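Sequence only, no structure available. Ideas?
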Amino acid sequence: MARSLGSARPIVLAAGMVMGSGVAYAACPIELAVYGEAQSGSEIDFTPSGRSATVTNTFRMILDNNVVLNGMVMWNEGVARPDGALMYKCPEGDVTGDELAACSFWHGVIYTSDDKGSIGLLPAEGVEAPKTLILPDLGPALHRSSAYGGGGFSKVPWDVFALKGCQE
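Reply:
I predicted one. Tokens follow.
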């Protein structure tokens, strides 16, 4: 269950707390962060990824009509970037590149932004959750996906998600 950052009460400022808009909030690690997109009501819920050697973050994107996309992030080699992917109903076990491509609806670098507008890259687990996530071209990619319309989702999120809570 997510706790709302808006319901925090300024009681005591202790170690591990951060200041924001005059109210103290407990720091939330990225692996427990919950983000929301205001226009469509879509959410991104991060989950601990375990001890994967390649996957640095895992998350779910929850769209309307109970459509859930599975997300993962792997840092690529060379020019290091958090390379994210959103997938829907992918086959399990050994899959071919074509099968994986068919169920991957979005692929790209995940950027972050702070309160001052400074742009960064999505951190790996164990770091405080950034205030904003930016998934470039997410909306157009999801609009073109096979899960859009019909029995799938009908509200396409924009590319920007704001931190709205932390899972307990």
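The longest helix spans residues 97-103.
Hope that gets you unstuck.
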